[in-house]
Amino acid sequence: MKGILVYVCKYHEVLNPVSRHIVSSYSTCSLVKRLSLDDIAFIGREYLNLLSRNFELDVTDLELVRKLIGREIGGDEYVKLVLED
Length: 85
What we know:
Blueprint (H helix, E strand, L loop, with lengths): L2 E10 L13 E11 L8 H10 L1 E4 L2 H8 L7 E7 L2
């Protein structure tokens, strides 16, 4: 059975330091737990299908986030689910 890595990620917006140079924004992620597919069945078939197809899934729904990590996140955070190899 494949495991699911659960990360909390924080989005960082970068202001362009120099005109005519484009610097993209980025996210930093921290591993918070590892779960099984059975542990996350509550997220629903649609999300599970997306996870299976794309091997990762960003979750911003506050109720799902609370169920996944047991706490709330800030407005610049999200949870990333990654399907292990």
